[in-house]
Amino acid sequence: MQSVSEDVTVHDDDVELERTIGLVGGLAIGIGTMIGAGIFVFPGLAAGNAGPAAALSFAIGGVIALLVALPASELATAMPRSGGGYYFVSRTMGTAYGSIVGLGLWLGLVFASAFYLVGLGHYVAAVLAEVGVALSVSPVVPLGLVFGVGLVGLSVAGTENTTKLQNLVVGILLVILTLFLSYGTLDTVGVFGRETTPETFFPQGYFPVLSTAALVFTSYLGFAQVATVAGDIQRPSRNLPLAMVGSVVVVTVFYVLTIFVATSVYGATQLEEFGETAMVEVAREFVGLPGAVAILFAGLLATFSSANASILSASRTVYALSRDALLPQKASEINLRYGTPHVALLAAGVPILLLVATGRVQVLAEVASFLHLLMYGLICIAVIVLRRRDPAWYDPSYRMPGSPLLPAVGAIASFGLVAFMQPASIVIGILVMMLSYLWYRYYAQAVELKGAL
Amino acid sequence: MTDKPTVLVPIQVLEGESIPEGVPELLANASVVVLGYHVVPEQTATGQARLQFEERALGRLDEFETILENAGASVETQLVFTHDEQQTIDRVSVEHGCLAVLVPNATSPPENVFVAIRGTVGLDRLVRVVAGLFAGTDIGVTLYHLVAEDESDEDVRTLLDGVVARLTEAGMDPDSIDLQIERDRTPQDAIVAAADEFDALVVGESDPSLVTFVFGMRVAQVAEWFLGPVLVIQRERPQEDDLGRSKD
Fold this sequence. Notes:
The complex is a heterodimer of chains A (453) and B (248).
Chain A: E1 2-4, E2 8-11, E3 15-18, H1 23-40, H2 42-50, H3 54-78, H4 85-93, H5 95-130, H6 140-157, H7 162-188, H8 207-216, H9 222-228, H10 236-265, H11 268-274, H12 278-287, H13 289-323, H14 342-358, H15 361-389, H16 405-418, H17 423-444
Antiparallel strand pairs in A: 1-2, 2-3
Helix pairs in contact in A: 1-7, 1-9, 1-10, 1-13, 2-8, 2-11, 3-8, 3-10, 3-15, 3-16, 4-5, 4-15, 5-6, 5-13, 5-14, 5-15, 5-17, 6-13, 6-14, 7-10, 7-13, 9-10, 12-13, 13-14, 15-16, 15-17
Chain B: E1 6-12, H1 23-26, E2 31-39, H2 46-71, E3 74-82, H3 85-95, E4 100-103, E5 112-116, H4 123-134, E6 140-146, H5 153-169, E7 177-182, H6 187-197, E8 200-204, E9 213-214, E10 217-218, H7 219-226, E11 230-233
Parallel strand pairs in B: 1-2, 1-4, 2-3, 5-6, 5-8, 6-7, 8-11
Antiparallel strand pairs in B: 4-11, 9-10
């Protein structure tokens, strides 16, 4: 028997698991994981694809994320356990769906981590360029690899104080971005006398708005990571919904403003040329070198913390799968010397490094989104299923409004967005799903999940 | 006989910590809550640590329970896997209504206990702990007061006489209570000097957490200077209702 209270998860025999992350910590996990991508990696790429309408792409992404955050909140308050979306889907729809979503989530986070590490590599490379180090080959991928090895090593052998650090990092980021975007917005609307040349809003037509929404959806994966550490969140019934919905709303506003400001300073083609570090040039245009340095610094912090958070979430997911015997028990083993889950961390770290080596930002981002969107769609369906069957244990303290219509829309939007991705990403995503299903047939078919419907 | 005072004994159960020498005798008259806890790094899920270590930790806690019960205490045990030691100690202390938390250091069989009296705040709980633990035993207590600059001798006298009266009323033999008053001394000196002479230290808590200021400094620091077991009297917590709101 288990019971969940405000501060602690109680198991039998007076064994308790302390809950140590409050609302601020939860928001910091969500915002900190998301903001690295949407502001510091995507604006140049997105504007290149869709022009100023990329702001609309981010808004669409935000609406879809919100449509998933609501049902995810309801499920998380009913089942506040480590594993998040995997746990909800596996307990509602059984082992087969659970395996596909669980293994998909693990690999989705692996793709996301690789994406953030490549982004981080771009920022470090930009710093090197700024201080005048000229290199004959692009240092982006090697730098991404070095940081990847460093972060995994740190997670295995170090005692991290990531939650407290994360709060601080997110605080600094929000201050820098608020200043930057306030100045940029005022400037754009003409307060400081700048002449902006308004571009056509849809220079490439309407389709790129949706395909860009599919690309940049990686910027919205972080809210689900709050659910991944649901077992650590204090007062889960209140803090989980607030942290998930709140972080989605905050980052959506920031993303839309960022694109608005960026596209009013430079034309879309120019931004595309700047690439992953376009925001540095935008800041330079506003306030010169200090602006560029501030955004470089913020970009380093943001991509670093996103990469770190995703690696840890991937390892948590491996633990959740191993706890349920969908992966070997060995995978959740804890290192006696460091007290860390070294096998799970390596199960995240090794494939991450392989993917970083490809250096393909867009494909990495889209596959990460694909695998998450699959889970998001099923989360929406899980709410509809649970509301209909209403099992005795299902007692969420937060109930989303508008069921079954809103979760149905959320599911359709999640699955629908996948259709707008590049063919390569869709193929890789489907391959991962098929491999997950085969793994289920080969390894986990006999597994009966505790607490399943 | 007074009620058995509830004392929390936090032990890092998987780090080789044990019930130190002398502590079972010191707490023979207490209702002891043994908090076995294990701090896991943030990258590890607490549930993951539980899977691997629960059995071993529970085995250790059973041993501790037996040791303390054999000395005469009544014992409850609790095992917690946590990322935050302080939060866990505070929470369990409040949940079990503990009057004091022990900083578990070893000592010789206790004969003489050093009780720091700061002022009237929290005296009620201090009296319950000291009388509850030591009334009717061979253990003597020394009430110690470090005189502040704006305090007159008369103030000090009234304070300490009051404490003696209440301890006696609670069942202690007046002959087993000594008084010691000092001025112009740093708290550090006082504690280090006491360490030679006394087997255990009782101090009050002035902040909501264990690692906080007594004598104007951190308990961890005090424990380090004193080297022996330190009982930290817990402040009165405001009662909370189910929604986590304060009642007062």
